[in-house]
Structures are given as C-alpha cells and as structure tokens.
Amino acid sequence: MIVPGKRTTKVEVQRNAGGEVHTVADVVAAEEPLEIRIEVPGSRSRDHRVSVTMRTPGHDFELAAGFLYSEGLVRERRALVDLRYCADVEPQEYNVVTARLRSSDDFDPDLLNRNFYVTSSCGVCGKASLEAVEVQGCAPLPVGTLKVSDQVVMEAPSELRRQQEVFGRTGGIHAAGLFSAEGTAAVVREDVGRHNAVDKVIGHALLAGRLPLAESFLTVSGRTSFEIVQKALMAGIPMVVAVGAPSSLAVDLAVRFNMTLIGFARDNGFNVYHGAERVEHRLVGNP
Fold this sequence. Notes:
Layout: E1 8-17, E2 20-29, E3 32-39, E4 47-55, H1 60-70, E5 80-85, E6 96-101, E7 118-119, E8 123-124, H2 130-135, E9 148-149, H3 150-162, H4 165-170, E10 174-180, E11 185-191, H5 194-207, E12 216-220, H6 226-234, E13 239-242, H7 248-256, E14 260-266, E15 269-274, E16 279-280
Parallel strand pairs: 3-6, 9-16, 12-13, 13-14
Antiparallel strand pairs: 1-2, 3-4, 5-6, 7-8, 10-11, 10-12, 14-15
C-alpha cells in the first residue's frame, strides 16, 4: 500500500530564551518533490513528465489536477480518467502522480515544450507575459458575477488562519481558501508553496465538477503574484483576497481580465487594486 508522506516533521533545535539556551524538539512543515506525469492512450510515449514541484505532502491528487487545469493542459473534468501514485518508482512512490487522460484528443504535446520545472518559491519558471494567458483562452470576467461585503473581505483572512492546522503547529506554511460570497470557507488547503495551495483548491473544485467558480472568491495567506492571479483566472474566480501585497504584474493581469484584486486584508481594512465594483460597502462610516 502506498502511503503519502507526512505534512510535518520533527527536528531538534537550540532555543535561546531570555539568555538561556535549551535543546528542544520542534515541528517544521514538510517539503518534498512531487513529479506530475500524464498518461495518454494511443501515444507513442504514453507517460509524459510534466512537472516537478516542491510541495507539502497531502492532497496530492488535487495538486496534480489543479496544476494541469490551471496551466491549460487539462480543459475539463471528463478528460481525467483517474489519478494515481506510481507503484513502480522506488523508494518514495508517493512522490510521483500520474494523471490518465480519456483520449489523445484531450492532450496537446506542444504545450510541454516550455519549461514546467516548479519550485515552492517562484512558481512556473519562464512564464512570459499577459499575452500567454490570452493564448490559453481566458477572456475578461463579467462584472455581475459576484458581490462581497467589506465585512466578509475583512473576516476572510482570519477564517483562513483558523483553518490552518499545519501553520498552527509550524508557523511556516502558506494557505489558500475558496470562499462563498457570504464568507463560508468551502475548502482550505496548505502548502509550503503558495501556488501549490492554490492548485490544491482548484483541483478540489475540478474533481468535484464545480468549475468555473464564478460565485466564489479566493483568499491567500501571503502576497499575490502573477502566478496566483493567473490560476484564479483559469478557474473563473472573479476575486482574489490576499493578506499581503500584489506584484505589479498581478495588478496588470487583474486589470486586463477584469478581476477584483484585494491586498493587505485585515480585520480593520484592505486595499482594492482593481474591481471595486464587486465590493459592497455595508460597514457604518463607509461611503
């Protein structure tokens, strides 16, 4: 039986507290490689190596499915026949996942010509421009898809934090959560890579047949990069709420595709970088 790796691991540390040094046990978030492969029936090379990402073990099938979808390699749920760990890989079988496709018509091998090597810090290396997102078939999002109150926006990061089990034990992991307009967290996932956490959330929705996510918004625990906004766009998510700041390219992408992008979300306020029409001001004192 193949057993996925643990999400945390114990280490021994020297703790300096008040000038006194003690050797104590501590817990850190696990980080291990995950190789994602695609198996295409009828192809001369049945197994295509797509990506290697450094991730926190857990929800690996969601991560693989979310990555394949958000990168445009899988366009719909029915294209995926199954996802499985590779039993013929030693010694850590659970670090290789193969996605078996329904037919060769569901896969374009030319999409693999670009570099899909991924790290936990930088996302897909070499992602070029806003035009690359348009090539994947994305169109600007309609305005009337979602309305969220300012109170819900401010409470979402706290609710995300409450559901971060591994962060509570380690203090060293990112999270992404899918929220309803009323502020209910439908799914929360953690990972050492912020983009992996987003892929796990999107993969969960894909496997459940819930895409596109026009009536939901995404909340992330850190900053917002181009990569995160791009993945949200591919899933049809009209709003991204982040605890940290967005990058300039993330803002440009939100503007180009009419997404609502919010940063520095706290319990006392937030910044709207684009798409303020989706935020309803209900708090006393708001204009």
